[in-house]
Amino acid sequence: MAGPSSYLRFSLSIFFFSFVLFSIFIPSWYHPSNEPKLRPKRFFPTSKSPVVEEPPRICKTKTRPSSQTIHHPLDPLTAQEITRVGLILRSYPPFESSLPPIHSLSLHEPEKPEVLAWEKGDPLPPRRAFVLALSSGRTHELVVDLGSGRVEAHSIESGSGFPPLTLDDLVAALEVPFASAEFNESILARGVLLSDVKCITPSSGWYGQAEEEKRRVIKVQCFDQEGTSNFYMRPLEGLTMTVDIDKREIVKFLDSGRGIPIPKSAGTEYRYGSVEEEVGCDSAPPLKPISMEQPGGPSFSVEDGHVVKWANWEFHLKADHRAGLVISRARVRDPETGALRSVMYKGFVSELFVPYMDPDDGWYFKTYMDAGEFGMGVTAMSLVPLNDCPRNAYYMDGIFASSDGTPYSQSNMICLFERYAGDISWRHSESPLTASQIRESRPKVTLVARMASSVGNYDYIFDWEFQTDGLIQVKASLSGMLMVKGAPFENTKNVPEDYEMTGPLVSENVIGVIHDHFMTFHLDMDIDGSNNSFVNVRLEKEETPPGRSPRKSYVKARRLVARTEGDAKIKLKLYEPSEFHVINPSRLSRLGNPAGYKVVPGGNAASLLDVDDPPQLRNAYTNNQIWVTPYNRSEQWAGGLLVYQSRGDNTLATWSERNRPIEDRDIVLWYTVGVHHIPCQEDFPVMPTVQLSFDLKPVNFFESNPILHAAPYFEKDLPVCTMAASF
Ligand SMILES: *[C@@H]1O[C@H](CO)[C@@H](O)[C@H](O)[C@H]1NC(C)=O
Ligand SMILES: *[C@@H]1O[C@H](CO)[C@@H](O)[C@H](O)[C@H]1NC(C)=O
Ligand SMILES: *[C@@H]1O[C@H](CO)[C@@H](O)[C@H](O)[C@H]1NC(C)=O
Ligand SMILES: [Cu+2]
Asked: What is the superkingdom listed in this entry's lineage (predicted)?
């Protein structure tokens, strides 16, 4: 992997996106080369920023995985394999004259039974790549066999929608305005220097507008960079261009907000050194450093680059350009038998839906689908050691393909670490009343796999946290910058009567527009094997017959086994509570209960948009918080394989209309977690983290508490630190 000095060579490149990308500087690595080799693509902090100066410290016992050898059927494509796919495609007759841009290139995973049958030491199943290439507006879907060097399958996608955007698409779109006299004139008229202008590329969504049909379009909106490093806080409001990505021309030019002042730069800075200069630091005393120590070293290992073993858990962890982080074959050891038992075949974030709540010309289209439009992996930058992940973290890279088919590395994209946050995993004390001196308590130590995607202004941190009691907590945290709207007033008292506020004022002349975030997880649960059922365990009020009891009512649990997909479309309701179990009906405990895991919702939110509103149609998979589908390897992406400008004709919601049987067979659970975001002043200029989560929790999976035998800590187990100052 490249060291710090080779990063520096690319330090001029600024970029990366989401619903956005900026800058018309074309990074130095950007030129297609005939000789494919691994090049790092990185966001590089500016010189003032203190981050990423050193490579992360790797625990002594851990060696970095060699990304060049394949050990497991699910291992992602290596750089060599990606290069080879590019070569195979270049000599494939339909593409011989010119290779169309590659929009997606990743492992075509072997069929599930093959993976399940494979054991360490067995020969690996054939290695295949799944490729999406775009040629003359048509999406080619290819399966390339690396062993034979042949294209095994090639079809043209017929549904609506285009594959994820490439970096070339974004760079091309961002250049377009700068060749426009109209744009130049508007910038001048706003009193802004053209050299201070940088733009972003919000995706256009799909609204059936004539000028956007049958071509790939993207919006371009710009910001004044003068006096700030906070890209997003000084919008040139009202200037919105619709750009044809392939023809590289403006198809619609909207310029309405020249009268709206550009918000001031003061107070927008967020980089460490710069904030101090502006604010001073005479408020609360800073916290003294705190860290977690592992005097005996870590308890986890990463074998063959991707297989994580920790406590009673074992799973495969990899980076994916679209999903970001993928957990596969998660298995937990049974304390009674010592056997590894299957919990989940595959888990990842399948799609994100982020609709903004403003119907204006420059805003209505902001209804992002970040995974399928931009990719959660390609936007996941290097994690910042000591801050994004603790010192005891282990780091993993992502190896992805550029649009010319060459590999590049997203280094330190995933981190893995053990966490002790001072919590308790179980306890009990007896009081003097029970005449006992029992004080039993066990510390809770967990294992976290983490990634952080910076999809333009927003940052999404995804954690998969494994506990020794068998629970997996999935967390999605939001941070980063608000997407703000320039407003012609500085104070709420000056809001004109006829002005429609689409969010609160978060700074002078800055509105934080209300929006939602929905994250839909694909959870292919395999509880002790693939054939599972979904059970809605409803809590229902029972009324006692007169005379039976002093009580009038009590609550009973009623188990409803879902027979078809229609039975498992769940909208969460506080006054009609349920537990949602995935069980293996053939695997009964000694007491006769089926082994299961339940999905335990945390705080959540549902979309309030009209179901016929185009963005909601495209994201109809958010109409329910839970869906269950029969396993189908083509149904991985809740919003469809091709979501860019899609019309919602190929989503989890349309697949589910078939109402297929789901009882006692291989099923996939889909869970959506969401939040309504009404911005507030504290979200400016950078937003403190907001955390959403849900749990996957064993239910009758173990015969009894699986961590009954866990040992407590004793003084001798932990090093004694001398305190710098006494209390
Ligand atoms: C923008 O317009 C100004 C004034 O007409 C002109 O001098 C300048 O060359 C233009 N710049 C570009 C990049 O077109
Ligand atoms: C698998 O999913 C695809 C896409 O939804 C569908 O076309 C195909 O018919 C499905 N296969 C089965 C066996 O249901
Ligand atoms: C799983 O269920 C399917 C469909 O009901 C059946 O064909 C298959 O034999 C079952 N597999 C196992 C291992 O029981
Ligand atoms: Cu938000």
From this structure: Eukaryota
Q: Are 358 and 725 in contact (CB under 8 A)?
A: no
Domain ranges across the chain: 21-41+49-164+307-427+446-727
Q: Cβ contacts of residue 261 below 8 Å, gap of 6+?
A: 486, 488, 509
Q: What tokens does 581 get?
A: 């179990």
Q: Is the peptide bond before 545 cis (omega within 30 degrees of 0)?
A: no
- What's the CA gap between 486 and 508, in Å, rounded? 9
SS3 505: strand
> Separation of 481 CA from ligand 4 center, angstroms?
9
Residue type, 700: N
Average pLDDT of 343-359?
A: 98
CATH architecture, domain defined by 21-41+49-164+307-427+446-727: Distorted Sandwich (2.70)
| Dmax (CA) of the chain | 87
End-to-end distance of the chain based on CA atoms, in angstroms?
46
C-alpha R_g of the chain: 27
Ion ligand 4 neighbours, Cβ < 5 Å: 677
Single pTM value for the model? 0.91
pLDDT band at 723 (very low <50, low <70, confident <90, very high): low
Q: From the alpha carbon of 654, which atom of ligand 2 is closest?
A: 5
